[in-house]
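ARCHIVE CARD
Drawer: 12
Card no.: 0347
Subject: one protein chain, sequence and derived structure
Cross-reference: see card 0346
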Amino acid sequence: MKRTWSILLVLTACSPREEAASDAAVPLADAPRASDAPRDSVSTDAPPSELCSSDGWCAANGSPNYAWALSVPPGGQAWTVAYGATSKLSIGWQFFDLGWADLVDPFVRHNELYTVHAVSPTDVWVGGQQGYVGHFNGGSWTEFRPAAPWPQGIWGAASDDVWVLYDSGLRYHWDGATLGSKPTSTVRYAGAWGRGAADVWGFGEIVISGLYKAAIDHFDGTTWTSTVVPGGGQVISLWAAGPTDIYAVVSLNTTTRVVHGDGATWTTIADPSVVQMFGVWGRAANDVWLVGAQGRIAHWNGTTWSGESSGSTKSLADISGTATTIWITGDGVALHRP
């Protein structure tokens, strides 16, 4: 089933869904927001100056609109896919000032792209409308069209170990030579994420007795195991410090909630009436980030959640990074902090 997007929020109302779980919520701090200001024009001789928030989040100039999926490989060059089926690569001028350049791929000029994963700056995968899967080797694109629509999540541990997960529950795996089908899941995937070849996650929804429930798949290198998250909806973003330390953003109609659990027990940590979040990512169990509507950013330090000023009021859809650099993309905005 193809997802429908409104701004950057997933709406999936195809059959009755359960109400959100009633766990007690801990409100996230709503940090003051700096108003948007005009950006400097791009110079061909030197990088334009960037506007930075009081918490050090700097806006990259010329950011694409509706950039709803992000991947940052080692080295920190951010890749994102954006509305209009254009794949974007950040090209460094110097320091941390980045601009956006179109990578013209004749296969996808008229398709929407939903997912991107960069194994390295010269090994990048994208997936989108009409079953399209594209691979960039640093110089050219190769097109794949498995007999399956709507690839929604791509993640790979290495150049010969890449998973492509589909809205229908289909799984495909790239072994360096062939993109081959694997056993189908009962989870209808909305995305993928991983930590290694034996620690891969697929997330989305599962239909039980006609009701949509948020669900997660985990691959341990041998076996895929499914987990149902309490409450209805669809998992739209996931990050885990380990197999029993999982954060997930769940979308239900026009609201979202953020849950944390060990795979068996789950607690709601962000109530939709308090804050609407779309993406989660972390570097460690005591360094977890959430991004969402109206430029909201929240950080977990292992003890407490705190809000941060993004310098923008635009919707932030996805977050990723390395040990030294964090990137955030959204609706016409791309932020980074070294």
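Annotation on reverse: The longest strand covers residues 199-208. The two ends are 38 Å apart (CA to CA).
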